[in-house]
Each structure stands twice: as C-alpha cells, then as structure tokens.
Amino acid sequence: MRGAASTRDSEIASALCAVLPARQVVADPLRRLAYGTDASFYRLTPEVVAVVESEADVQAVLRTARAHGRPVTFRAAGTSLSGQAVTDGVLALIGEGFATCEIADGAASVRLGPGMVGGDVNARLAPHGRKIGPDPASIATCKIGGIAANNASGMCCGTAQNSYHTLAAMRVVLADGTVLDTGDGASVAAFRRSHGELLAALARMGAETKADAALAARIRHKYRIKNTTGYSLNALVDFDDPVDILTHLMIGSEGTLGFISRITYDTVADDPCKASALVFFPTIEGACQAVLGLRQLQVSAVELLDRASLRSVQDKPGMPAVMRTLGDDAAALLVEVRAQTAPALQLRMDAALGVLAPLPTLEPAQFSTDPAVCESYWKVRKGTFPSVGAMRRTGTTVIIEDVAFPVESLAAATLDLQDAMRRHGYDEGIIFGHALEGNLHFVFTQDFSDAAEIERYARFMEDVCTLVVDKYDGSLKAEHGTGRNMAPFVEREWGPQATQLMRRIKALFDPGTLLNPGVIIDDDPQAHLKNLKPMPAAEEMVDRCIECGFCEPLCPSHKLTLSPRQRITSWRERSRLHAAGESTAEIDTAFGPLGLDTCAGCGLCATACPVGIDTGSLVRLLRERRTGPVKRAAARCTADHYDTFASASRLGLRLGHAAARVVGDGLLARVSRGAWKQQMPRASRPVVTPRPHAGDPVVYYPTCGGRIFGDGTPGQASLHEVITTLLTRAGYAVRLPQHVERLCCGQMLSSKGRPQEADTMADALAEALLTAASDGRGGFHPVVMDASACSLRMKKHLAGRLQVLDFHEFAHDALLPRLRIRRSAGPVALHVNCSVRRSASDDQLRQVLRACTSQVVEPAGVNCCGFGGDLGFTAPELNAHALRHVPAQLPGGCCSGVSTNRTCEIGLTDHTGRPYRSIAYLLEVCSRPDTVDAAC
Question: Which cofactor does it need (predicted)?
Fold first, then answer.
C-alpha cells in the first residue's frame, strides 16, 4: 500500500507476516488507528490488522493469534453502532476475496461471501424481482458478514425476513480452524465425526431448554418482538438437529462463536408496485392506536416519528408545510404498502385507509404512488438522524440506540422514553422507529470528554434499562446487536438462567476466549463506560462527521490507502495530539502519502454522507497548507500563462511519443512509474474558430483536457472538432469565447489546494463566457462544455448568471430531437464519472448512449475512476485500484467505451485495453448521413 510505514517490531505482526502476504498485514500506527475505527462510540486501536482474503487466511490468523494469546475480532464494513467491530488485539479485516455472490436458478436463493455489500446484492437480484430479507438502513454500505453476525433487520423486514428466518445454509470457520459447510452433505458428515462432542452438547442444551417449559416459553416470548440482546437462544427451541442449532446460533453472534465465510439466503419478493402515505396525528397515542390496526394488514413498513424528530427536519427543502404547524404532542406515521400488481396494491391501500379513516388524524390520510412524492415522504424519515448529527456541538458524538417494546405498549413506552430523555437533559434527542415491531430508535448527542457527562450518560442508560426491562419487558437491543454497550446488561434483560445458557454456548465454541471478548457478554458492570471514543475538534468542515462509514463504498482510495472516514479519524487524532502538546511528527509523515496524495477529491463521499461532508474539501485545505513557495509560484505562473502551460503539455506528449517509438510504451511506462500510459493520447490539434453560419447561437467552450489530449489514434479528429461538427449538424451557430487557449476553469489548481489561483482562472473564464453568450439584449445563449468536472465547477461559479450545460446534458435536451440517429450494432461500455453523479445527470447520459446503441455495458461497483485530474499520472496506483473490477465485467464483444471527462477516458483506456472516448464521438458517427457501425 502506498506510503505504508514499515511494519512495527511486534511479535504478533511478525508472526502474521510469516503466514500472510506482507501487503495483508497492517502494523503502522496511522492505519491501525484508521482501520480500527467503526461507527460506534468506542475506540480501541488494534495491535495489528490482518486483511483476510480466504478461509485459509482466516485459519492462519486464528492459529497465529491462539499461539500468541491474542484475541481476534472480525470486521466487515465497520458500520456497527454498538462497538462489536473494535479491538485492541488482532483485527481481521474481511477482504475482497470474500465479496462473492452466486445466484441460484430462479433467484430463489443466493450464496454470499461476508464481503459483499448488502445493497450490491439487491442490485444483482433486482432483475429477478427478488432481494434479501434484511434491509438495514445502512444496506448501501454494510456487508453481509455484519448483517448476519448482528442479525440486522430494518424498516420492512421485521422479524419474519431477518437473517435468522431466511437462512438456508452456512459455511463457518470455528475458533479451532475447522470448516463446516451445512450446504455440503460430506462436510456435515465429516463434522459430525470430528466434532461429535460439540454437537452432542448442543443437542443436550436444546433438549434441556425445551424440557423447561417456563424457560422455553420465555425464549419464545422474547422473540415475538425484535431482539438482538445476547445469543440467539431461539435456536435451542426452534430446532432439534444440532447442526441447525449451531448455524442459527451463529446468526447474531457478532463474531464471538466463529467466522461466517459463506451464507445462503432464501430470497424474498421485491414487489414492483409501491405506495406511501405520511399521516400526522395530534398525539403519540393516536399514532400508536393506528399501528395496532395496521399491524393486522399487509403493510410493508410503518415508521413512527415523534414531534422532536419531525421538528428536526421541518425546515428542510421539500418538507410538508403542515409539519411546521404541529403541536408539541404530535406524531406521524410513514406507511408503505407494496404488491406485485397495481390492483393488489390498490386493495392494500384501501385496507390501510379503512383503518386510518376513523382515527383522529390532522389531515385525511392519502397514499401516493408517485415515486417523487414517496421519496419526499421518506426524506422526512431518513433526514432525522443526520439532522441531529449536523446540529451537535463540536466535540460531542451522536448516539443512536434501539430498543423494542410490546406493540400494545408502544404509546406509553414512547412517552416514558421522551420523559427520560428530558429528565437527563437530552433535550435535542429524537425518537423514531419501526412501529410494526415495537422497535424505537432514540438519537441524542453525548460528550465523553468530561467525567460528569459520562456519569450523566450512565444514569440515563440505567433508567433506560429499568424502563425497557422492568416496566415493559422489552428488548434492550432490537436490531443493532448487543456489542459492548449492552453486554453488561444481558443478564438484566434475560435473567440468570438464560444468561448462563449463553455463557455455556460461548465456552463450548470458544473455550480460550479468542473471539471478540467483551462483546455480547461482559461481567464488568462498567464495561460500557470504558474505551469511549474521543471526538476532538479538527476542522470545522468535517467536525460533524459521525464516522458511520457510509462514504466508503464510493471512495476510490478505500482499501488502497484511506477512506474519507479514515482520513477524518486520522486528522482528528492529529488534532488531539496537537491540542495536548504532544508530537505529531509520526502522523504527519504518514498522513501525507496516505491521506493527501491519493485522495481523488471527487466529492462522492458527500453524496452518501448523512451530514453532507465532502472530505475532499479537507484534503484540499491541507494540501494548500503544505504547499511550499516553489509550488505556489508554479501555480501563479500556470494561472497567469495557461496558454504556455498547455503548449508545453502538448510538446511533452509529442516528445513522449517520439521516445515511445524508440523504447516502447511498456518501458516508458515503467521508467515514468506509470505516468506514461500504454495507449497515451496524441497531442490535440489547436482549436480553430468555426466559420460563421446560420443557426441558433450556442457558446461552446472546449475545456483544456480536450485541447491538450487528442485521440489515441493518429489522424483522428480532436474532441473540439467532433463537438463543433455535431452542433453545426444539428443547426446551431457555434460561438467560442475569445482567447480560448488562455482560458481554464482552474479545476486542476483547485484540486491541488491552490484555491486563489483557481478562482482567478475561473473568474477569467466566467467573464469570457458571459461576453460570448450575450445576445445583446440582456439575455444569454446557452453555454456547452465538454468535460464534466469543469462543467460542474463552472455551474457553481456562474450560478444565477449563466446557464452552463455539460455536453451530454445539451445533447439529451437539444441534439437528440434534431439529429437522425442510426444505432451502433455492438455493445458499448459506459463510465459514469463522479462529476456526472454529483450533478445527478447520469440518467441523461444513459439516455444519450441508449439512443446510439441498444447494448449498454455499465460495470457495477465503479464510481470514481480515481484519475483525479492529474493523479492518474502522479499516483497511477489510485487509478488502477479504482478500476480493478472493470476489465472482468466487459464482455468480449465490447470493444469501446464512452465517458465525459478526457482524463477519465485516458485511465479507462489504459486499464481496460479498450479505447474510451467522449460520448460525442459515438453520437457524431451514429448521426452521420452515411452512418456505419460505430461500436469499434
């Protein structure tokens, strides 16, 4: 990994290096801290991080850790909220080798590795009309390993479709390294022979539990509502075969009994027809009365929101106006119904409205099937948690707890919980939840830097336990897993007899307490108040980060160096050290290459962040601070003489091609450490002002990427020539801004942390565009640009003054209606780059491409290509890492690709072996009067 510090002289790290490839053993202080952080409010720094890519790796880690007496914690995505994914021992980080997905014929089941992201699984199942049962709110980030190990559920899955109830088979690695595959008869038979004593003990435990009528009834009662407190004791009463008992005990065991290396789920229907209703009630009691009636119907979700949660989002754009007029006791239900057909959906809507009609609602209940309206309703629900995170005081953390009550007690329990939060001073706290299951989430902010604040938290949690367990006999953990924060309270909820069963289970599977100690069961009554995560002020732009990790799947440097969450965690630690007067030299040395040099600055992290943080802004600020006088002078020179810089760049390309003709592209690429590409573009031809002709005026600004980098094929038209031809063909009179060669939007310098010089360049371009676009009567003609990153920057810079369109946006709106297009015969690959995603114009791009070909190939799991301006030349490993999954997803007949950024296309061409060009090239060929096959 780039910039990795040398492996520290640790006995366990050295031992792991002997059994794993060196790249899979992480022992430098910065990455141990960063990789060891999860979404919870606990902080433990692992002694070493071992990336496991196979069962053999897992067995080697377990064997080595056992020999050295060190505990092992398995970690998937780290979205865990209860501290079950942190450790001061060996952190076994699940690698991409476990990101496997095998869909059975008919998609009735799916076999998954623990490294698969839940949302990606559902995306693969969607064409079959199926999905997995669990649907946690973090499904776009969390992985199958965590979903199963925590028995995560969600808004629609309830208890019937969670991992426990949709489990079909499992492959598990036990603490002693033994592998059991319950989907393989030979494996089961061998396991019965080798581990007969373990299975016999489980069988006895099950028989004893069933024979104890009171205990069996207690267990069944506890699982009538959501419950993830402790081990899945229902396995002892639901099954007779000890193999079934074993596999179902693994669900919700949080890595304390073994490692789930594969799991097969029975899939569930993904109903295509959906409708939502947001219903307001004057009181919580009225809303909960409606829940009791709706629970008898076929409704998919009923989300309860108290007045505080509604108030937290009522002023956001698009929220229903009635929310601002609600009384202090008001509440709302978000109801969703789903069905396979529209008539069936109507029947379910009518039934739900029949329950709601006689109840005292503030407005008549009504369902909508309009996706935009439904999305606006769900924005109310989804916006509550981030709203608290965004408003919290710097230095505090956001805590989200989840409990469950018997549904008939939900109203009273909600009022009691509100009262408890007020009594303990958590006035900002909000309550929402999955009402059909009696499952409430309560969110509040907490300062763990002060002993008095920690004591306040302790008193509050004691009152919560009294309320949930003693008064309502509910679940202290409904769906987030027991973790560290409820481990001391398991016996409080379950009682000594059931808890002793859990201790016997732990001892049977893990006699050496090797696996994730301190999680699920902890005899220390103060354990939940120890190892609390500090949240020091770092930089205002990132202080709101709650370290949830939602950003990570979108980040091109995740798993190469650091993710956005890990960058913020690292900088927070650096800020803490600085504030304490301690040395920051070690972290400064490591953070440069790990945190700054490989950040693409694409901003996709902000699109997934609950509080909208763009970690790239932090990186650009820190790059600016470390810029020395020589680089500052170079930036000023570039801004003042951009035409000279562009000419020098084109000259460099010509010299590079001359050298490549002598030594070959491969050697030149190696000598330049990847800066030279195997299919490096030729220098672009100079921009020529088009001849005046009649037509609708449009301003075209050829961006510098296309002006410098031409096509990879000698003699091929440059991008600005192709777009000018297209605009003219469609009947537009093309105007260019004056002195094009001198102009640049400044994106390049902005990403390098030189905002002043970048803005100077953007200002000059803005003035040139305004002049060129003026119609002489106070209005402006549209402006078209041919690079998405530049278009996005200038849209912001000229917001409210001038309409700027990326080429594919203009092509969708203005060219397609005017051009006669003959589709290409072959499949064409599409890369939707980060700027297009951020501008939400990806559907327009797809529609332009579909107009040109009926065979679109869009590889999954690729967001930003990682070229990041010129990082593809200076840090080519980032580009290679970001695109590592693309080549295998391109079919043999797909011999070309399109995108909308010239530098992105250079990297894609280099790493796929297929020429990627602007979609303008394909559109131009397909719209020629004598169009031929343009696929290749």
Answer: FAD
3-state secondary structure of 303: strand
Specify whether the CB–CB gap between 909 and 929 falls below 8 A: no
- Asked if residue 317 has pLDDT above 90, the reply is no
Give DSSP secondary structure letters for 813-844. Answer: IIITTT-----BSS-EEE---HHHHHTT-HHH
Q: Do 889 and 773 belong together in one domain?
A: no
**Pick from 446, 461, 480: which residue ends a domain?**
480
Compute the radius of gyration of the chain from its Cα atoms: 30
| pLDDT at residue 833 tops 60 | yes
In this model, does residue 3 exceed pLDDT 70? no
Q: At what angle do helices 242-250 and 185-194 cross, to 10 degrees?
A: 100
**Which of 451, 480, 509 marks a domain boundary?**
480
> Does residue 548 lie in a domain region?
no
Residue range 562-597, pLDDT digits in tens = 999 999 999 999 999 999 999 999 999 999 999 999
pTM beyond cutoff 0.85? yes
Check whether residue 804 and residue 911 sit in a common domain.
no
Which tokens in the block code for residue 591?
Answer: 């953070």
Rounded Cα distance between 101 and 906, Å, is 31
Crossing angle for the helix pair 842-852 and 919-926, nearest 10 degrees? 30
Indicate if 220 and 310 belong to the same structural domain. no
pLDDT-derived band at 38, boundaries 50, 70, 90: very high
CA 262 to chain centre: 22
Q: In 355-435, at which residue ranges do the beta strands (DSSP E only) sit?
A: 397-404, 430-434
What is the pLDDT averaged over residues 276-284?
Answer: 96
Indicate if 432 and 304 belong to the same structural domain: yes
Condensed to tens digits (0 to 9), the pLDDT of residues 210-259 reads 999 999 999 999 999 999 999 999 999 999 999 999 999 999 999 999 99
Report which DSSP code applies to 254.
T
Q: How far apart are CA 440 and CA 182, in angstroms?
A: 35
Return the DSSP state at 169. Answer: E
Per the structure block, which two tokens stand in for 352?
A: 């739900």
Q: In this predicted model, which residue has the larger pLDDT, 313 or 147?
A: 147
On the question of pLDDT at 379 being above 90, the answer is: no
- Residue 8: predicted pLDDT: 43
Flag whether pLDDT at 830 surpasses 60: yes
Residues 427, 321 share a domain: yes
Domain extent, residue 876, equals: 828-926
Q: Do residues 488 and 526 share a domain?
A: yes
In a domain, 234, yes or no: yes
pLDDT on residue 931: 52
Listed in sequence order, the residues at least 6 apart from 641 whose beta carbon sits closer than 8 Å to its beta carbon are none
474 and 490 within one domain: no
- Domain count of the fold of the chain: 4
807-823 pLDDT, tens per residue?
A: 999 999 999 999 999 99
Nearest to 3 by CA among 557, 554, 552, 583: 557
According to DSSP H, which parts of 212-356 are helical?
A: 213-222, 234-238, 242-250, 284-294, 307-313, 342-356
In the numeric block, the tokens 């992105």 are attached to 904
| Average pLDDT score over the chain | 94
Cα gap 405→399, rounded to integer Å: 20
Mean pLDDT of 722-728: 96
